[in-house]
Amino acid sequence: MALLATKHVGVSFGGLRALDQVDLTVEPACVTGLIGPNGAGKTTLFNVVCGLQETNAGQVLFDDADITKLKAYERARRGLARTFQRLEVFGSLSARDNVLTAAEIHKSWSHDESDPEAVTEELVERIGLHDVADEQADTLPTGMLRLVEVARALAARPRVLLLDEPSSGLDEHESDVFAKLLLDLAGEGLAVLMVEHDVPLVMEVCTTIHVLDFGKMIAVGTPAEIQSNADVQAAYLGGATGNGDA
Ligand SMILES: Nc1ncnc2c1ncn2[C@@H]1O[C@H](COP(=O)(O)OP(=O)(O)O)[C@@H](O)[C@H]1O
Ligand SMILES: [Mg+2]
Q: What is the pLDDT of residues 78-112, one digit of tens each?
């Protein structure tokens, strides 16, 4: 049984069927990829998993429980944390205080005895935010803010980390460092679900890749299986130069 799963999830926006009978599984200790063309429904699926989008059909299962009707904060407390495609940082706070806020909120309701300041310093170092930790967030470039969001999500000590296009804004070197971080986190047991348009990054770090197209899951498989899948080639990878939006 997967740690996190969706079963036959459907979401409609008026006449638009954004998700149709979508099944997704996320296992611990690995990075799972979610790819597909722009508008395929990837962010909508993240919102469904996190409790920010109601479903018309289907279920969200986490750790053997049906969490479909739980509120977003209740899901967060069970161990789901995410980052946002359209960054959602506290712009007037420093990078460090964005992380500290999450660490303090986590401590306020959990039985975690760790010192939020210590947790924050550890994450600031680990995620590579040391040089910008005192800078006000809204003065930082997009790539750095994506890392602030990752650190903030990790401060909640999640079991599943959902990343919505985390590498956009990272340069090649930063992307390599980020790939290693993801593999390290997975190595520690974390389940990572990542929407990402950087195909080489996805192929490098993901154990399993799911492919959404027009609201339907058209393929699931290993990177090698996905790369050689004819439907995926036609919908997404075939036009890699012009159709690379995740
Ligand atoms: N809140 C919303 N209201 C209406 N349509 C939406 C809403 N959110 C997303 N959509 C539409 O649903 C489809 C899937 O969007 P999205 O999940 O953002 O795709 P992706 O993340 O794969 O690019 C798109 O056609 C988008 O325009
Ligand atoms: Mg999106």
A: 999 999 999 999 999 999 999 999 999 999 999 89
Burial 159-174 (b: 16+ CB within 10 A, else e): bbbbbbbbbbbbeeeb
Residue of 9, 13, 50, 84 with the most ligand 1 atoms within 8 Å of its CB, for mutation = 13
Q: How many CB atoms lie within 10 A of CB 91?
A: 13
Judge residue 114's burial from the number of C-beta atoms within 10 Å of its C-beta, 0-12 exposed, 13-18 middle, 19 or more buried: middle
Out of 23-27, 45-49, 205-209, 229-233, pick the least confident.
Answer: 229-233
84 in a domain, yes or no?
A: no
CB neighbour class for 24 (10 Å; exposed up to 12, middle 13-18, buried from 19)? buried
Number of domains in the chain: 2
Residue 122, domain extent = 90-157
d(C-alpha 225, C-alpha 82), whole Å: 27
Provide the token pair at 8: 């036959």
Is the Cβ atom of 94 under 6 angstroms away from ligand 1? no
Q: For residue 138, report the distance from its CA to the centre of ligand 2, in Å.
A: 22
* The dihedral sign for the CA sequence 76, 80, 86, 90: positive
Co-location of 146 and 127 in the same domain: yes
**Model pTM score:** 0.94
